[in-house]
Amino acid sequence: MKYLHPRKTFTLALFFIGLLSALWFLIPRPTFASEAESGYLITGRLFDPQGQPIVAAEISAYLPGEEEAIAEAESQEDGSWGLVLNYVPEEISVHVQRSHFVDQVIELDTVNLADLKETRVLRIEELSLDRKVTAGFWIATAIFVIVLLLIAFEILHSTTAALLGASAVLLISALGTAFVPSMYIFNFERALTYINWEVIFLVMAMMIVVAVIEETGIFQWTAFQAYRLSGGRSWVLVLILMAFTAVASALLDNFTTMLLMTPISLQIGLALGINPLALIIPEVLASNVGGISTLIGTPTNILIGASAGIGFNDFLINQTIGVVVALIAMGAYVIWHYRKEWAKVSGGISETLYEKLKENGRIRDPEALKKSGIVFGLTLLGFVLGERIHVVPAVPAIIGATVLLIWLKPDIHQMIKAVDWTTLVFFMTLFMVVGAVQEVGLMALAATGISKIVGENLGLAIFVIVIGVGSLSTVIANIPLAASMLPVVDFLSGSIPGASSKVLYYALSMGAAMGGNGFLIGGEANLVTAGITAQAGSPISFKEFFKIGLPITYITLFIGYLWLMIRFGAF
Fold first, then answer.
1. Is residue 536 pLDDT above 60, yes or no?
2. Which of 116, 137, 339, 370 fits a 20 to 30 Å CA distance from 81?
3. Starting at the edge strand that comes first in sequence, how are the strands of the sheet with 92-97 ordered?
4. Helix, strand, or coil here: 82?
5. Which of 22-26, 74-78, 455-459 has the lowest mean pLDDT?
6. Angle 23-29-32 (CA atoms, 0-180°, nearest 5)?
7. pLDDT of 36 above 90
8. Is 195 exposed, middle or buried (0-12, 13-18, 19+ CB in 10 A)?
9. Residue 84 in contact with residue 40, Cβ under 8 Å?
10. Using CA atoms, how far apart are residues 252 and 245, in angstroms rounded to an integer?
11. Does domain 32-128 have CATH number 2.40.100.10?
12. What are the extents of the domains in the chain?
């Protein structure tokens, strides 16, 4: 059998993946207008009291005295719906039904029906359905709060807590309604629509990319070079490590970066004779803030970007300066806070320890590093250019991961194992739990409450989101908090003058990520790092993290708030 040359294989794979991606976006989508060509179309749009489109409402057309509908439809993502009739009757009523909303009936008069017969299309004015509070509302709210408490107090693993919440919602919706219909929240099919699959595939692909790059030893090499450049001065070393961690977190993601940086930082700290946590905790803080600069830097940015249509370039342009200023202020505070630790270092480390660090910090596979660098660079370019042709970031990420697997031919079983499926399951089930409280109207109620507080004052809205979400993020893990706040920010962005610039989404990004520095339980990167250091015999205590994390949280939050006010002219 004749085999293709590896370069030809690489080129063909890239070509076919790109071709399939392009075809997906070129496939025409059906429209109501095309359906109307064979009949008479009654169409309209549905909105909730906050002006958000209502999805999956059932719209039916009935003749007087008849129990069976002559036409049925379902509202789409934008709230639009269309009923297609074979003929125009003398009288007809349109019934609109949706769980957790008050039913509405529209009686069409003779003038409406005459217009329908003449033009074949009747457009009904936009309808607003009122919310109704059912038993399902209180059940979904209670489950949501319980899940947050289980995560915040570490009673259960975050993934287990989210699974429990999703299971409870689905169980009550399936069985509870047999006895009390008002307990219904949503069914499994509806729950799946709340999962943002773009986020899932983007995170999965980047995990594969990082797993391949990690094998080259680039992170260990960089950490050793940081020590070498510092000349053994620990306060210089911590600034270099913080800078590298911030940049790496922006290009990869913060918890993966800490997963790779923590072990060698432990070695360097012990070799210098200082508390390794004086290096590691500042790295965690820098990773949470540095990741805000890009779409892929933090899980919360991935959530926000996918929901609001904010791309790689947008985060880079609108957040980077504020992030850099925040990191400078953070570095100054870290040097002051650990001043006693820096004083412990005398004359560096022994030659034996130096050689050991050097050996651990060597590049293990230069050729693989070169190829990985090329593919990773092209993937980042795909993020930047993809926005211009409306290609979501998950597409270049999947292509990049696939090309690496084809080009380098690593052990595919090891690469798949490197994917953190626990995190992906957490995301999926968390989307369902948050979707439940969106479905019953809790988030709409919260949005209305915040809207009454801020009114039309954009500056106040930015302050409430940055500082308010940041404060909540100190005790509530930032991923579920950001996911639950997105519907609120959606509403505020459409109701406050000047908020259409998506500034409130950037405020949510800064608040959720920077607030995660307050307490040890506030962010995924914090928990990952704490787990590694505990296994190595240097556990991070809640008090130790809190003493430096909380002041830095509010220093960076206020810098982030001021930057957004300047950047978007909200003063």
1. yes
2. 137
3. 71-74, 58-62, 92-97, 104-108
4. strand
5. 22-26
6. 170
7. no
8. middle
9. yes
10. 10
11. no
12. 32-128, 135-195, 198-443+458-567
